[in-house]
Amino acid sequence: MISARDMTVGYRGRAVIRALTFSLSPGTLTGLVGPNGAGKSTVIRALTGVIPLMAGSVHLGEIDSASLTTAQRARLVAVVPQVPDLPPGFLAGEVVLMGRTPHLRLWESETAEDLRVVREAMHELGVLDLADRPVHELSGGERQRVVVARALAQQAPVLLLDEPTAHLDLQHQSAVFALALDLARRLGKTVLAVAHDLTLAAAYCDELLVLSGGRAVAAGPPEEALTAPLLKDVYGADARLLVDPVTGRPIVLPEPPPHLRPSS
Question: Are 42 and 51 in contact (CB under 8 A)?
Fold first, then answer.
């Protein structure tokens, strides 16, 4: 599991995230949502140690994250970045193999076990047949799955997804969230995913953590975390909340413009 207690993070002495406290459990998918500038990506960077905390703490299980080296932290937390950092000139299989780096000593070559883990991760993501393809030849959805396979190859118990559906079409957006939920359920991973689409996040996530102005303003199951007053306060927009008749999860729709509303 991963938890934060009174986590305060900022840049150049200015706090962006203020006294954020939460705890995420194994086997669950949590959606981190909020308007632009709320601090969602900053939370991801803080949890991975990319930026230091100004105050508070982050724990991975019972371990204070501040006590870990970069390699130790990478064995516990894997990240799928907002913009996939796929180095040009590499094959898809080579990119996934990079996920084994935290487990290797300096100058140590990969072992048969590392190659087995990579094949298993690529099979899990349905990209094993792409292993010998240059990454620049892959589609957006294929590249995204390769990046997730790289994170899976790290064998870290915590998986952080920073806007994993950015630039993807509806089919691939749903596929990414379905995969994240599957990894949580079947492999027992603790998964935190940054999302902009509230309906998509509500459909797949066990819980939502809503940020606004660097603070948590709501947390809980989607049907409890998302309310019309909260959407008005956080997003500054009038919205209608419907209920999916199949799942019971909330569907968020903007209020239609006046000319589309039925006349009274």
Answer: yes
Nearest Cα residue to 204 out of 169, 244, 241: 244
Cα dihedral 6→9→15→17 (10° resolution): -60
**CATH 3.40.50.300 applies to domain 1-76+156-227:** yes
**pLDDT by position in tens, the chain (length 264):** 899 999 999 998 899 999 999 999 999 999 999 999 999 999 999 999 999 999 999 999 999 999 999 999 999 999 998 877 787 899 999 999 999 999 987 777 889 999 999 999 999 888 999 999 999 999 888 888 899 899 999 999 999 999 988 777 888 888 889 989 999 999 999 999 999 999 999 999 999 999 999 999 999 999 999 999 999 999 988 888 999 999 999 999 988 777 777 765
The Cα 86–Cα 95 span in angstroms is: 7
Size of the chain in residues: 264
* Residues 29, 180 contacting (CB under 8 angstroms): yes
Element (H, E) at 121: helix 112-124
> Which residue, among 49, 8, 29, 251, has the nearest Cα to 161 in the 3D structure?
29
Q: Where are the domains of the chain?
A: 1-76+156-227, 88-155
Closest by CA to 56, choosing from 2, 4, 17, 1, is 4
**Spatial distance between the Cα atoms of 33 and 162, rounded to a whole number of angstroms:** 11
